[in-house]
Design a protein that fits this description.
heterodimer, B: 553 residues, alpha/beta, Rossmann fold, 6-stranded mixed sheet, 20 strands
């Protein structure tokens, strides 16, 4: 009503121009995408770039504070903290990405079905989700890992399961409000089956809010994985992983060796921070209505 | 009383500054009602928001003054504006339900305003609120005091918004599309009330609307806005009789009125002769004792109570009634999105009601029965471009692929008057009229025999409505389609339909040839509907006179 949407002589933005616009518009988004690229770089190439072998011990060089050879110092076994922090990125990101991907896919399917058909399917799903959410989530994850066994896969499954209700709830609500929308009915008239209407017409419209959820969830998932490792479940030493490193370093803080816990903790914090900031930008990118 | 001079408003957007209002000047006298008429994007609502200083972020008053009783609203401090809003100038909005807080009793919302402006104390607030409700002719006001907005009808909500607006005895009332979305009889009731009360209290008012007929009936003077500028002002009768500006003439022409044909709504140069329209004799759709009952928590709801009618091949039938009369339920059943409770729907002699709605998708008749939806915005997938939207039915129900598919899409777009360059745009990048064309192109993509039009022009501006109605008439002639036109607007139905069915409370109260039902209605309800439609002042000059005049120029 208030805006002239049609400015003559201008072609609508394509996907690429839109991405650039979103980045340019919001410096915070730009920063978060820059930091995400930084973490991705570490995850893919960190192992080849680090100056020291993250697993090599050197008793003569233990507990050195940060210096020019060992930027983040060395731990109690003389391992280079910087190399370990960088190499750990791949494992931590893998766990969180896979966990989020699993809860995204399963949560979307369940939520979409419940939101579209409603009725007893909806009621059953909601009660199951309520049950999952009734547990303290971290304790539930601990229980699952303890019961299934102490492996990386089980950390992923546990993290996925505790995040599942959030996706299912969100998709259910988004699908439900669009079930009777004009374009959904029009899709039915165009010869789409219920399945096609749901999957290709209604569900994609739920993506923008999902992206916010995904990015927040990535942060939680990393924290969750690190938390499980911190209490000794999941990843086992000497594998470099932020949670274990913080746990190991915690013992030495009292004796003044602050760097062992600080740097993995800092990386963990930065990673969570990055994902939390990315949400709005991701939403704007997947929402075609933001294009002009 | 209110004097606006060179008033300009602009908005900051991604593409730089957009001038929404470009220097308008207006005067409003004491006790006068001014109608501001214009189409969407003309800046008429922005003007009123700017006067109240409630513009969205990014909007600002760029220049000019608006002096209200000696005070310049454009320059006033926010603190002063708080005293002005509600007490001196109040506003009623387009969507009354959205203007009320959904989780508070309407009586409490009235009390808030009264107490905020010192018109009531805690002790007498309730009594004053009930008094205010009675003032807007709400029956049983004491009981309504405890109602929540969702428990009330749209018309009732608008009355309550009006009561809130009047509560502090303002001098000026701004009504921004106060009856959009209301039924025609409710519209009349609300507008009559607004007129009577503002007159009785000697208030001035500004009525903002896109409906020239409505503005003409309820305003002393009209101002026509286009692209942020006022192109013409004057008394309604004069504007209608002899519009000076070409845009005003276009608006006057496009307003459906007694005695005007479909082509008369278009600008003079576009009035090509209309193809003859002769319905055939064979019955295409026969509806027999169709019943739909919903099982609600408080017992059965009889939405449609056994209706029967026949639609002949090539005929255009209008289905008219107010919201809740069952016309939407009927059209949903005919288009096979909804299962009937009992009764038959014979399509070319075959009972399609026997096929469950869920399975009708795979029936070969699916492509034969299509629908154009009421809200073009809502009925287009926000994530699909116009091309994808039009392609969808073709991909699902025919074998066309590749270049043949693209050719067909472009042919449909051309047929519906949609420029090919717009095919790759998303719905939010299209105007209302363009979206309507995409919706129509999708509906006719598979050459349906029977097309249900569910108020296809309800959300459109009058000039776009005129174009879309003519497009529908042309398509009918070219493709030989049969229409069921669902609408609450009798003036529009008269233009396109040969036969009219009037529904009330789930039953058909009257049906017959369009001219007969419109000119000599037999049922009192039909007469009420006809009387409620705002009657624009008849254009004094006949079409021939205008032609002669433009020839002389």
């Amino acid at each position: 009503m208030t805006q002239v949407t049609d400015i003559p002589g201008r072609k609508p933005d394509g996907a690429w121009a839109h991405l650039l616009h979103v980045l340019r518009e919001n410096p915070v988004t730009m920063l978060s995408f820059g930091m995400f690229a930084f973490f991705l770089l570490q995850a893919f190439f960190g192992a080849y770039l680090v100056p020291h072998d993250p697993l090599a011990t050197n008793a003569t060089n233990a507990l050195r504070p940060p210096n020019w050879t060992h930027w983040f110092g060395t731990d109690s076994l003389g391992r280079d903290v910087f190399s370990r922090v960088v190499v750990a990125t791949r494992l931590d990101l893998t766990i969180s990405v896979l966990a989020v991907a699993i809860s995204f896919v399963i949560g979307s399917v369940l939520g979409a079905i419940a939101g579209y058909w409603g009725g007893w399917i909806d009621a059953v799903l909601n009660r199951v989700l309520d049950t999952i959410m009734a547990f303290p989530l971290f304790v539930l994850a601990m229980g699952i890992v303890a019961a299934l066994g102490n492996t990386v896969e089980n950390i992923i499954y546990a993290t996925a399961l505790i995040n599942l209700p959030f996706y299912a709830r969100l998709v259910r609500a988004e699908v439900n409000i669009r079930r009777e929308a004009g374009f959904a009915l029009a899709a039915r008239l165009s010869g789409n089956s219920h399945f096609r209407t749901l999957a290709f017409h209604i569900f994609p419209n739920a993506l923008p809010p999902m992206m916010v959820q995904v990015s927040l969830n990535m942060g939680w998932a990393i924290l969750n994985a690190a938390g499980l490792s911190f209490i000794g479940l999941g990843v086992r030493p000497p594998t470099p992983e932020w949670g274990i490193m913080v746990a190991e370093g915690a013992n030495y803080i009292i004796s003044g060796h602050w760097w062992i816990a600080l740097f993995p903790g800092l990386w963990l914090m930065l990673a969570v921070f990055t994902f939390n900031l990315m949400g709005d930008g991701l939403r704007d990118i997947v929402d075609p209505r933001r294009r002009t | 009383m209110l004097s606006i001079r060179d008033f300009a408003v602009s908005f900051r957007t991604r593409r730089g500054e957009v001038q929404a209002v470009r220097g308008i000047s207006l005067d409003l006298g004491s006790g006068e009602t001014l109608g501001i008429v214009g189409e969407s994007g003309s800046g008429k609502s922005v003007t009123s928001y700017a006067l109240m200083r409630i513009l969205d972020a990014g909007g600002r008053i760029r220049a000019g003054s608006a002096v209200f009783e000696g005070r310049d609203l454009a320059q006033a401090a926010e603190r002063d504006m708080q005293a002005v809003r509600g007490r001196e100038i109040s506003m009623i909005f387009q969507n009354p339900r959205a203007a009320l807080n959904p989780i508070r009793k309407v009586g409490h919302q009235l009390e808030d305003v009264l107490r905020r402006h010192g018109r009531a104390t805690r002790a007498n607030a309730r009594a004053k609120a009930i008094e205010a409700l009675e003032a807007v002719r709400i029956r049983d006001a004491a009981a309504r005091y405890d109602a929540y907005p969702f428990e009330l009808s749209g018309g009732m909500c608008q009355r309550i918004v009006f009561a809130i607006a009047l509560a502090c005895g303002p001098r000026l009332l701004i009504a921004d599309e106060p009856t959009t979305g209301l039924d025609i009889t409710t519209q009349k009731a609300v507008m009559d009330l607004v007129r009577d009360l503002t007159r009785a209290r000697g208030m001035s008012s500004i009525l903002i609307t896109h409906d020239l007929g409505l503005a003409a009936e309820y305003s002393d003077r009209l101002a026509v806005m286009k692209d942020g500028q006022i192109v013409e002002t004057g008394p309604a009768a004069v504007l209608f009789a002899d519009p000076q500006h070409p845009y005003t003439r276009k608006l006057v022409d496009a307003t459906p009125r007694r005695g005007a044909g479909l082509r008369d709504l278009l600008p003079l140069e576009a009035r090509t002769p209309l193809a003859d329209h002769l319905p055939g004799d064979r019955a295409l759709v026969q509806v027999r004792d169709l019943v739909k009952t919903y099982w609600g928590k408080s017992g059965p709801v009889h939405a449609v109570k056994g209706i029967s009618f026949t639609i002949r091949e090539g005929q255009s039938v209008g289905l008219v009634g107010e919201s809740g009369c069952g016309k939407s339920t009927t059209s949903s059943m005919l288009v096979r999105l909804l299962d009937r409770t009992s009764g038959d729907i014979l399509f070319e002699g075959f009972d399609i009601a026997a096929i469950p709605a869920d399975r009708f998708v795979r029936d070969k008749r699916r492509s034969q029965i299509q629908m154009v939806f009421q809200d073009a915005t809502d009925s287009l997938n926000p994530r699909h471009s116009a091309r994808q939207t039009i392609a969808d039915p073709i991909l699902r129900m025919s074998g066309l692929r590749g270049t043949a598919l693209q050719t067909r899409i472009e042919e449909l777009a051309t047929l519906c008057g949609l420029p090919l360059s717009l095919l790759d745009r998303f719905p939010h990048q299209l105007s209302g009229g363009q979206k309507a064309r995409v919706g129509i192109a999708r509906a006719i993509a598979l050459d349906p025999k029977f097309l249900i039009l569910d108020e296809p022009t309800a959300a459109l501006d009058v000039s776009i409505q005129a174009v879309v109605l003519n497009l529908l008439a042309d398509l009918r002639a070219r493709l030989g389609m049969t229409y069921l036109f669902v609408s609450h607007d009798l003036n529009v139905v008269r233009l396109l339909c040969d036969h009219v069915i009037v529904m009330q409370g789930g039953e058909i109260v009257e049906q017959g040839p369009a001219a007969k039902v419109m000119d000599t209605p037999s049922h009192p309800y039909t007469r009420t509907l006809l009387a409620a439609a705002p009657e624009p002042p008849t254009t004094k000059m006949k079409t021939t006179d205008i032609a002669a005049k433009s020839a002389a120029e």
